[in-house]
Amino acid sequence: VERYPDRLIGYACINPRYPETLRGEVQRVLASGKLRGYKPYPPQQAVPLTDMRYRPILEYCDSQGLPVLCHGGLSASNAITPGNLDELAALYPNAKFLLAHTGSSWALAEALVPVARKHRNVYAEITYTSITYGMIEFLVREIGREQVLFGTDCVMRDVAPQLGWVAWARIPLDDKRMILGGNMADIVGLLPEQRQSVTANLGRK
Q: Which residues contact 59 (CB under 8 A, 6 or more apart)?
């Protein structure tokens, strides 16, 4: 991120199990501007996102309107659920809660729909190894193109099929542009001059 600040935007992953260093880490990696979002990971940290220990981090994200990338699922024991986001989105209305892997199952997507309709700061992020047929069309229809986000889990997962899910979805071209980058550009506050097409850089060294 430091080497390619015009190409990469990073997330902080701060472990709430170390409260003595937590506020210092918020200052070091978020308040410093080095990283532009927060990625909690309850499966490894073994602390649910609704736990009070996360409060200093979430309060900072709320104060700055930062994205919080949540490992999504239906089991609260190892994931962040739509029910969790229903609670958190109300407490931190300026933070942007991105539910990763929403496209992994109809059950998860359908559980997120009423939450995303209720809270405009909740987003469906699609990344998964496979995706249910018609999922992109469903999410755009049910919660709107402004709250659907492309994601890849790159480099652990191949980008190509996940790009194809959006590129070949039966939705308007402008919807695809928003999902594939426009919405995320809004979330992280990219300036107009920072929103150039990838093709604009072809041939640059």
A: 92
Rounded average pLDDT per 10-residue block, the chain, 205 residues:
89 94 94 94 91 95 97 86 97 98 95 98 92 94 98 86 92 95 94 71 47
Backbone angles phi, psi at 125, to 5 degrees: -105, 135
How far, in whole angstroms, is CA 7 from its chain's centroid?
Answer: 18
Enter the pTM of the model: 0.92
CA dist 131 and 45 (Å) reads 27
For 68, phi and psi rounded to 5 degrees?
A: -120, 105
**Total H helices, total E strands in the chain:** 9, 4
For the stretch 15-22, contacts whose Cβ atoms lie closer than 8 Å and that sit 24 or more positions apart, written own/partner, are 15/45, 16/40, 16/45, 16/47, 16/51, 16/53, 16/54, 16/57, 17/45, 17/46, 17/47, 17/53, 19/53, 22/53, 22/56, 22/57
Peptide bond between residue 47 and the one before it cis (omega within 30 degrees of 0): no
Enumerate residues 6+ apart whose C-beta is below 8 A from 17: 45, 46, 47, 53
69, 39 in Cβ contact below 8 A?
yes
Q: Which two tokens stand for residue 92?
A: 């931190």
Name residue, tokens 């996360």.
Answer: 54
Phi, psi of 71 (to 5 degrees): -70, 105
In angstroms, the Cα distances linking 26 to 13, 56, 66, 95, 187 are 10, 8, 12, 15, 19
